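We emphasize that the prediction below concerns an isolated chain of 289 residues; any contacts that depend on oligomerization or on bound cofactors are therefore not represented. The input was used exactly as deposited, without trimming of termini.
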Amino acid sequence: MQVRKAVIPAAGLGSRFLPATKAQPKEMLPIVDKPTLQYIVEEAVASGIEEVLVIIGRNKNSIQDHFDKSVELELELESKGKTELLEMVRDISNMVQIQYIRQKEPKGLGHAVLCAKSFIGDEPFAVLLGDDIVYSEKPCLMQMIEVYNEYKTTILGVQEVSKEEVSKYGIVSGKAIEDRVYKVKGLVEKPKASEAPSRVAILGRYILSPAIFGILENTRPGVNGEIQLTDALKELANVEAMYAYAFEGRRYDVGDKQGFLEATVEYALRKPELKDEFLSYLKKTIAGC
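Result of the prediction step, given as a token string:
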């Protein structure tokens, strides 16, 4: 069965970016000139995804507004002959079929994924976290779908992180079976560096078997009283084969201020119309520090 649907959890409060996120969803903070969430939706669409479900919370209406049709804006751009901007705005609302469901309580990533059960039904699906952007020649999710098409089971998107960072992530215990592919034996959620089974970290991209829903329904709250997706994945690995794929690309944790700033600078430098002047500014700034 093909991977046709994707879930994007975007219900977090964004407390690390207060006060900017007091009334603005963190997923709508722009990386140069495009909201974070749009980069993620574009990755899904470029990977062949046909339907997207965004899990939202309170005060997230601007997400729906951004991907909806904006009649007034389109008429204004058309009347002023701004054809390129008009096409860009229309492309956003026509990009893909997007649905929304509200996670009424902040019960964790596992609970957010469980909210998608009726949307997914009985088919494999992708999960792309709203805090993670991946810049790569071939879309990250497309890489993972190609691996899924070979193994036909759950695939975790991973990369190796430094020893100092393992305590931030779910860490994979497993064996490399081919280039960039690991057979998963177990998972540890945010271990101490001294207790981590590896430095292979799960980084915001998953292709999941629908069997995960039955497990999530019976998963007890874990760290911070939340239903942890990693806990459910541990159980899933006991009943189904599970693999991890070390995807190619530059991954940014834009839910973190440092990651957000790195993404902003590097995406700006990739834009031909900005690169030279912005690079000159950066050099002068660094020289003056």
